Amino acid sequence: MKKSLFFEIDGSFGEGGGQILRTSITLSVVLNKPIKIKNIRAKRKNTGLRPQHVTAVKLLAEMCDAEVQNLQVGANWITFKPGQKHRSSIKFDVGTAGSIPLILIAALPAASLNGVGCDLEIKGGTDVKWSPTIDYFQFVVLPAFKFLGMDCTIEVGKRGYFPRGGGIVKANIKPLKKLKPLQLVSRINSPLSCISICSNLPKNVAERQMRAALESLYSQNMKCNNVVTTVIDAIASGSSITLYSVNKGSFLGADNIGEQGKPAENVGEQVAQLFLKEYLSEAPIDMHLGDMLVTPLFLATGESKFKVSSLTQHIRTSLHVASVLTERKYYFEIHNNGAATITIKSDSTDGPME
């Protein structure tokens, strides 16, 4: 029997969501490894590829001139074969409110390690549900990625909210030869910052979000040193709020999105509680960033060891998929407070221990 040219990934593993797709495609591009992803989002109510997943794969395929089969909404499998030609400049319309931050998180390692870098201009959603806000991406994700060696700057031209999107983000991604591993298991606290924004709404919406967040934080003896409330251009109304505490020994953040009919005070109070949960874990990396760091750390040179506030199902799934594709091993230790220390080995000599 003829051996398949494609390395197979089971898209139903673990949490079985879109993260498997993004992790697999990014690693496929960097490793130049053709893959077939089957059972895509098999555990979701609406199985198969959704529009935002299709567009993410299209962008990564365009970046490296890949051959893709069965890329359509509802598809439960695709094949992805990376090409050898890497484009240095791309303009891309995600369509409606598909998440720009999630696409950038997938594209950044691939563009950084392709030898040429890339200038991206992406149109879509900047602040939408089930995705980090563009502020979380800019003020938490980018500093953490830069800590590993990835150099990317962004310019947010316009915000985009559900359902119309229309946000515009330009990203300049510099090339690099290799990624640095991460050794970060203890935290150095840094001042807390907060940015609350709204579009096509009275400025007091952003102010009320901020006020509620600050009051909730203050009740736990936490102060915010840097506060920004502003109205930003967009084609539709919306709001978001992001809290973050970042330095070379701390990468913590939390965000929340305003919704029609939801009081701004609730939005602010909720983000404060999300941040406090991360902060009280005493971990240097929040659980969402921990998931985003998995892919680049499996591509880094050397062993990584880092502590996250919680070992989520998303992180477990990302670790498994990255381990399978890179043939590198990992293990983790869960602490009494729920935080976890993850080790990604520099080679495949030691098996994963869970």
Give a quick rundown of the structure.
The protein is built from eight helices and 16 strands.
Could you give the topology of this structure?
Layout: E1 7-10, H1 18-31, E2 35-38, H2 51-64, E3 67-69, E4 77-81, E5 89-93, H3 100-112, E6 118-124, H4 134-147, E7 152-158, E8 167-173, E9 183-184, E10 192-199, H5 203-218, E11 224-231, E12 238-247, E13 250-257, H6 264-280, H7 287-299, E14 304-308, H8 313-326, E15 330-334, E16 340-344
Parallel strand pairs: 1-2, 5-6, 9-14, 10-11
Antiparallel strand pairs: 2-4, 3-4, 6-8, 7-8, 10-12, 12-13, 14-16, 15-16
Helix pairs in contact: 1-2, 1-3, 1-8, 2-3, 4-7, 5-6, 7-8
Structural class: alpha/beta
How many beta-strand runs? 16
Strand content: 25-35%
Going by CATH, the architecture of the largest domain would be: Alpha-beta prism
Q: Please report the number of helical segments.
A: 8
Look up the CATH topology of the largest domain: UDP-n-acetylglucosamine1-carboxyvinyl-transferase, Chain
Q: Quick one: CATH superfamily of the largest domain?
A: RNA 3'-terminal phosphate cyclase domain
Fraction of residues in H or I helices: 25-40%
Which of globular, elongated, flat, extended, rod-shaped describes the shape?
globular
Mean pLDDT, nearest integer?
94
Structural account:
This protein starts with 6 loop residues before the first strand and ends in a 10-residue tail after the last strand. By secondary structure, the protein is an alpha/beta fold. A hairpin with a 5-residue loop joins strand 15 and strand 16. Helices cover 32% and strands 26% of the residues. A 4-stranded mixed beta sheet has the order 1-2-4-3, with helices on one face. It has a 4-stranded mixed beta sheet with strand order 5-6-8-7, with helices on one face. Strands 9-14-16-15 form a 4-stranded mixed beta sheet, covered by helices on one side. The chain has 8 helices and 16 strands. Helix 7 runs parallel beside helix 8. The C terminus is likely disordered. It has 3 domains: 85 residues, Translation Initiation Factor IF3; 91 residues, Alpha-beta prism (UDP-n-acetylglucosamine1-carboxyvinyl-transferase, Chain), CATH 3.65.10; 89 residues, RNA 3'-terminal phosphate cyclase, insert domain (Dihydrodipicolinate Reductase, domain 2), CATH 3.30.360.
